[in-house]
């Protein structure tokens, strides 16, 4: 059994995964908007420091992984309503 990613995995990692429809694009936007809000909150309320910089950089990484989860797994289960699909279905998962 091979260890690590397969050739197919690597090809997928470096491929563009366009939104399947406007709901998925909206979900990507919601991730960006919510991360941006948190980043701006950090700027407002955290003291300027190496730790604040690290928190903002970690938030950027979080945004990347959240959007990758949407792009690389186009249909996933809604954790709030098990059994219902959200991304690519009739409604995106609401984010606040």
Q: How does the helix and strand content classify structurally?
A: mainly alpha
Choose one word for the global shape.
flat
* SSE run: HHH
How far is the N terminus from the C terminus?
42 Å
> What integer value in Å does the Rg equal?
16 Å
The percent range for helix content is 55-70%
The pLDDT mean sits at: 80
Structurally, how many domains make up the residues? 1
Tally the beta strands.
0
How much β-strand is present in the residues?
A: under 5%
Defining key terms:
96 residues; flat; 0% strand; 3 helices; mainly alpha
Task: Provide the fold topology.
Blueprint: H1 7-13, H2 22-45, H3 50-72
Could you characterize the architecture of this molecule?
By secondary structure, this protein is mainly alpha-helical. The protein has three helices and no strands. It has helices at 7-13, 22-45, 50-72. Helix 2 packs antiparallel against helix 3. It is flat, with a radius of gyration of 16 Å.
Give the gist of this structure.
With 96 residues, the chain is mainly α.
């Amino acid at each position: 059994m091979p260890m690590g990613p397969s050739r197919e995995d690597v090809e997928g990692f470096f491929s563009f995964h366009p939104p399947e429809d406007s709901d998925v694009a909206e979900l990507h936007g919601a991730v960006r908007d919510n991360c941006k809000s948190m980043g701006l909150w950090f700027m407002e309320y955290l003291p300027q420091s190496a730790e604040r910089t690290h928190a903002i950089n970690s938030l950027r990484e979080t945004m990347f992984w959240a959007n990758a989860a949407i792009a690389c797994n186009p249909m996933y289960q809604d954790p709030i309503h098990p059994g219902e699909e959200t991304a690519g279905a009739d409604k995106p998962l609401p984010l606040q």
